[in-house]
Amino acid sequence: MKRRDFLKVAGAVSLAGCATPVPSKARVVVGGGFGGATAAKYIRLWDPSIDVVLIEREPAFISCPISNLVLAGYSSLQDITRNYDGLRRHGVQVVRDEVTAIDAAKKTVRLGRGSELTYERLVVSPGIDFTFADVEGYEAAMNNGLVVHAWKAGPQTTVLRRQLQQMPDGGVYVLSIPLAPYRCPPGPYERISMVAAYFKQAKPRSKVLALDANPDVTSKGGLFKRAWSELYPGIIEYRGNAKVVAVSAGSVRTEFDTVKGDVLNVVPPHRAGDIAAKSGLITTNNRWCDVDWRTMESKAVKGVHVLGDATLSAAGMPKSGSMANNHAKVAAAAIVDLLNGRTPQPVKLLNTCYSFVAEKEAIRVSSVHEWDSGQGALMPVKGAGGVSAARSEAEASYAWNWARTIWADSFA
Amino acid sequence: MKLAIIASAAFAALPLSAAAQDTAGRNLAAGCAICHGTQGQPGPGAPLIALAGMPRDHIASQMRAFRDGKRPATVMHQIAKGYTDAQIDAMAAWFAAQKR
To answer: Which of B:3-42 have CB within 8 Å of A?
Structure first.
């Protein structure tokens, strides 16, 4: 896209405010992941008179959910990629660029290629970035191809798959899991399962060594451990309270010892994405963005709604694609209400996360969350939610349905 | 932009309570879309039937059956417990009113 096209978008956005006596309904959405894409689509669905601009630096979305199956060879990067044409069909203006600064007083965002957009309400859905400095030697090792995180689906997913394929039988794959909260609580344990499934089939003398900074499996622990012992006996070694503090060629160091590995998959701790850090949206532990869960509006910056993994999680709420999609609907409903002179009403949020433990077997965790006006907080609904009774092929079929449906709900 | 103004004026002219009631069902139902599809329309080949256009009483009675453990389920028995009768009715009415 050429620069003058950005200016055209900016011009249209500004003009909307000047040309009519009613308040401008111009809006900007930043970040085309589950949160941003869903917010853009649902604002247009619920009030097509609102202009929505989505700014995303990548040409397409690559899904973290299902990306662990790519590591085992059960899916491909192509299967889990979605473009933004579906949003364009809803009338969203999709701009491929990066937001470099937000000026909440002037209500503008600056783009990497220099133009500036005016907004009435801003949605920031920046995902996560990593605090590499928490793991000594990480960035140098990553840049030299000695370690990957593969915790944003994309090129590193392909690299990790290739490393697993090239690893000799009898090798050791090391997965290091950061302290919670991190993106996708059950994700590391699904990854353990998928790599073990691949080893069992392709190189059965190999080992998966999981070093978890958390004391124990943080999600669906009973179901994962049962699957590991029944499906992959002798392949997986899981260690809790094993925080990796340094990486170098062929080894990682925990607080207690040094561990050698043939493939090093160290997932560093996270924080809200860079643009949140740069624009004053981070409120807590230098990592996360606190929001009003009735509207998703930032507690730090008025007029800016923050979605997805970047938020300071409410009680019992995972950082997941399902949650980001639901956050987006809360924000969309609130923004549509606010721009039409109505008071936003609290909305319920619904989470469901499936994890594969074998090519054709999956497990699940679900929860429902509601605004508790007494506590002034979003809380899980007592008595609702839970996990699968057991791993099953039926859950795997529903897992694939969930993935394809949420991709369509967010991007098509 | 002209069309946009007309649309928003028409929406604003609705009585607030009716608009709020309508959006309550819509907003609750939106959460279901992660498995059941946008506006209750599952994609081609999906293993779930469409909620869009399903009779309101049927949706509401099935949600209550899930909630009360009378209809077996893999997940809906846990999710249905998260909603009140009034919320189930609001969602059911909204799905029933959607085009198939």
So the answer is: 3-5, 7-8, 11-12, 16, 19-20, 23-24, 26-28, 30-39, 42
